[in-house]
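Aim 2, interim progress: modelling of the zinc ion-bound target.
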Amino acid sequence: MKVICPNCGSKDIGKIGTSQYYCWNCYVELSVAGEQISSIYQVEEDGSLHSLNDLFLDDQAVQAQL
Ligand SMILES: [Zn+2]
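Predicted structure of the complex, ligand included:
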């Protein structure tokens, strides 16, 4: 599966788990279910996760990029 970051468009995505990816360009964590991104989180400086689902997952363009 080829993942493009829906936040910045970068292809510099690292796999950090069986269904989790991390964007090294904008520090966003992606959870993937099947062929779709199921969750997007911004990793804060203190290590906490801030959901970006509201920003991206209603946008059909996210799925089109996969
Ligand atoms: Zn990114």
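The first strand starts at residue 13 and ends at 17. The first helix runs from residue 53 to 56.
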